[in-house]
Amino acid sequence: MILEMKVPSPGESISEVEIADWMVETGDYVTKDQAIAEIDSDKATLELPAEMSGTIELLVEPGSVVAVGQVVCKIDTSAKAPEGQSQGAPLAAPNPAPTAGPTSTKSAGIASPAAKKILAEKGIDPLSVTGSGKDGRITKEDAVQAKVAMGTARPGDPRNVTRKRMSSLRRKIAKRLVTVKNETAMLTTFNEVDMKPIMDLRAKYKEEFKTKHGVGLGFMSFFTLATTRALELYPTVNAMIDGDDQVTFDTVDISIAVSGPKGLMVPVVRDAASLSFSGVEKDIKQLAIKVRDGKISIDEMTGGTFTITNGGVFGSMLSTPIINPPQSAILGMHNIVERPMVVDGEIVIRPIMYVALSYDHRIIDGRESVGTLVAIKEALENPVEFLMGGDVKTALEL
């Protein structure tokens, strides 16, 4: 029996995807649920699993844009598994021949079909390439980078320029960012936060918190809860424009910008106002792991009402973050630097973070935008009163 595999819909409103890379070749025996391809949509990168076991025939090239529902490969389910491979498990890869020098950081030469073709064209040994794919697999991008490193990209071009098509996700992000700049009245307001109260709390309770809850007591839980408080005070900042209507939400769903292998993702912490410090930290940790491992779902990245992004982890002192549409505002965190401040008439050194709130002036006025950022600052500089109800132990569930 020949099974025709069609591209499933990754989510609502998505009509086409890109076959980013095949993880098998025509003639390979695949097993049910084995990952056979990576597909890029305009919202996420997902793995395509085999629907049945059998011998596979690929029908489209890597990098092809295909419609949802299009047949992209066929599986001959009547084919028998190769000797030594059961019907329900992939054939184990043979041990690679020993090579000179350490190989612990290499990929053992396992390359995707597209990567294998690129490496073969330039005579590059797969064992010399570090794979960034699943289980150290060499992806097409790894192969292209290997060409650049060896000075073999674009023969005849002394600059060794290489060209590659942006992923569907990156193209969508680029289009959305330009749309935001062109179609919103975006402004940014700034403030500074004395981080000493939070840093003192973390220093005192972080070990006990981690022992009790299994997660660290980070800055993000303080910022998330301070933001939810501010948005309850200024609900217009938690709203968005839909045509000629203003849509306001009765819950605060915070999108947290997370950097992953495929670029910046924004998974959502649902109903953040109802969560405790440990609840926020656990949600963020779980979502960040899914982004890192490429297992984040589209549902987990949609529906946010406000975004927090932390450029400080990369060393940014100050920035004007771009609104994450269709939301109307975004909070930017930055690095913490010891700076001189005047406190009670005396100059003291304090750990200071600059914060920025970008907002759509079509729906949010100066009073709401500045008030929101001041409320966030207020809560962060006095977290015991505004975020913990005066009882640190109870708030941290210790």
Mean pLDDT: 84
Distance separating the two termini: 60 Å
Uncertain regions spanning at least 5 consecutive residues:
91-107
Write the element-wise H/E pattern from the N-terminal end onward: EEEEEEEEHHHEHHEEEEEEHEEEEHHH
CATH superfamily of the largest domain: Chloramphenicol acetyltransferase-like domain
**CATH class identity of the largest domain:** Alpha Beta
Shape: elongated
Q: What's the CATH topology name of the largest domain? A: Chloramphenicol Acetyltransferase
Output the number of helix runs. Answer: 9
Instruction: Please provide the count of β strands.
Output: 19
Rg of Cα set: 25 Å
Strand content: 25-35%
Q: What class, by secondary structure content?
A: alpha+beta
The main pleated sheet reads as: 7 strands, mixed
Domain module tally: 3
Helix content: 25-40%
Features of the shown structure:
398 residues; alpha+beta; OB fold (Dihydrolipoamide Acetyltransferase, E2P); Dihydrolipoamide Transferase; Chloramphenicol Acetyltransferase; 3 domains; 4-stranded antiparallel β-sheet; 27% helix; 25% strand; elongated
